[in-house]
Amino acid sequence: MDEERARARIKDLVEIISHHDVKYYVEDDPEVTDHEYDRLMNELKALESEHPELVSPDSPTQRVSGRPVDEFPQVEHKVVMLSLDNCYSPDDLREFDSRVRKWLGEEPVEYVVEPKVDGLGIALLYEGGALVRGATRGDGRVGEDVTSNIRTVRSVPLKLKPEGGLRTVEVRGEVYMPSKGLQRLNEEREAEGEPVFANARNAAAGSIRQLDSRIAASRPLDAYFYTLSYSSGRMPETHHGCLDAMKASGLRVSPHTRVFGSVDEVLGHIASWESKRDGLGYDIDGMVVKVDSLAQQERLGYTAKNPRWAIAYKYPPKQKVTKLLNVVFQVGRTGALTPVARLEPVEIGGVTVSRATLHNEDELRRRGVMIGDMVLIERAGEVIPQVVRPLVERRTGGEREIVVPETCPVCGSTAVREDGESVRRCVNASCPAQVKERLTHYCSRGAMDIEGIGPALVDQLVDGGLVKDVSDLYGLRETDLLTLEGIGEKSARNILDAVKSSMDRDLGRVLHALGMRHVGRTTASLLAERFGSMDALKAASVDELSKVEGVGKVVAESVRDFMVDEGNRALLRRLSEAGLRMGGVPKADGPLVGKTFLFTGELKSMSRTDAGSAVESLGGRVGSSVTKATDYVVAGDDPGSKLEKAKKLKKAVLDEDAFLDLIGRR
Ligand code: IVH
């Protein structure tokens, strides 16, 4: 395409995709299928890679910069970012209302009530409609420039829609982590031996303050905007008018904002949300009440710290008292013994809680809990209940000390606590609990994606002596699986197919699947990208590893320790002998970017491994089962049940010749 036409098409695509981003991420009302969206995005990526000079900073392909920084530059806010005064009871709020009315000489007042989302306050600067800066609150006057991280939040528009009439503006809002995202992130972190986030606010703040924006990009963040703090154009007359203009500009504004004319109505609304807040899918810690008229806001002005025209009504924390029945120690993938409290079931915020984390041995001691204690339980971050403290005054004398085992509760080996660690670990790498956790992680969707092997089958495989480490998966035969309860011929074959497909996984996935401490999905991809092969990684020094962006000394040492360990080296050898490719990191560009292929049956002209490499070298991916994400199913001789599934799901099925055409080998 010549430059002029490419320029015009790129401009159109940026606009179309930005529109669909707002529909999908902001308004929750998508207009096109994921497939159509991917098609547009791939067209844009292809054009931009042909014409790099035409890439604009507000292109949707430019959310992640890929260049980590040493520290965040400081920025002075256009208007000081104050915080809100808090109140905790209807009487407090009535007092606020009286103060407001008195100050305004008893004239009519309307209030806007908004949820107070529990995240990290941010200020965004748009110039001429384009996002130029995103900053944290800092001390209110000076914050940190976290633009590269804010840009990775998909609901933050890189460009404002002209319909809203906002051009050069500063808006404020809250970046937060939805409860489901926090739960998933914490599960991943727990499996990787990383500390979990105590609540959604810490998780959001920790993510936005990552020096490597690729890590921020991998975190499930979202944002709501609630203040138009500066506009080069005419300001609306009311706060709700500002919210409307922001919404029309493509900024995500809470759908639960209401305007009321009296404090009683405001209180009724706040009370009705106290229980409803559990169903929101993200944490709110209260409601914010603001005077709607901007002229009245101006007359009310500010105290040294807070606006006089707004107040936060805080809900009480979600806490309950229940009995601590017992403490069990779970053994994780890295052998870590985690104390878990078993509780008399109690309902907190709409969820029945019967287990709570006690984090680790030190926390256990710090909180001073005993078995039999009545304990205060809190659901922090909506998802992980935790034991806050024992109610010492309610002790009866029958409580018992919690004994931290010195041996592994599963295999009986010594459990050692090393210097600088807050947990004891079972030293036996072949401990069945560790083996099971490692296997489950290896097969999980984010790792090798071996469909059909979950915790229940892993239990059977390990307990039945069929699998001692992940390499044994590749030696499984149908007859082995048929000895297990509940496994028939059909499921045995599906499992073996899934195991076989996993041999084609790229190096990043394999590294993640191996479960090295501190190496999550993002780090694994970065390592794979940089080193390209397992052999190169085995030979890498701590220094070389630390040069990878996002890899610090601790991570580098963990990788190095793993790679020099004789047992691990033998495991890698067995995996490679079993046929794992461990290579071919998908390229970030190429004609097949965004396309997922699935192979079924034998190909005549090449092995499936080579076919997979060909796809990946052109930027595509290879999947192990037919799913929504599959784009092409390549059917060779004797295709299995996957072909039927592909037809049922109306997937594009290619025969060998059509596939060879597509990859340009014919
Ligand atoms: S208005 C001048 N509205 O709560 C005060 N804040 O201390 C401007 N927050 O720092 C803040 N939801 O990070 C406002 N709907 C909302 C909010 C909200 C959450 C946060 C914000 C602020 C803190 C209040």
Short recap of the structure:
The protein is of the alpha+beta class. The chain is 36% helix and 19% strand.
Key structural traits:
alpha+beta; binds 2-(butylsulfanyl)adenosine; Helix Hairpins; D-amino Acid Aminotransferase, Chain A, domain 1; five-stranded antiparallel β-sheet; OB fold (Dihydrolipoamide Acetyltransferase, E2P); 666 residues; 36% helix; 6 domains; five-stranded mixed β-sheet
Describe this structure in words.
This protein has 666 residues and is an alpha+beta fold. It has 6 domains: 3-62, Helix hairpin bin (Helix Hairpins); 86-314, DNA ligase/mRNA capping enzyme (D-amino Acid Aminotransferase, Chain A, domain 1, 2-Layer Sandwich); 319-394, OB fold (Dihydrolipoamide Acetyltransferase, E2P) (Beta Barrel), CATH 2.40.50; 432-504, DNA polymerase, domain 1, CATH 1.10.150.20; 507-577, 5' to 3' exonuclease, C-terminal subdomain (DNA polymerase, domain 1, Orthogonal Bundle); 596-662, 3-Layer(aba) Sandwich (Rossmann fold), CATH 3.40.50.10190. The protein contains 24 helices and 22 strands. The structure holds 2-(butylsulfanyl)adenosine.
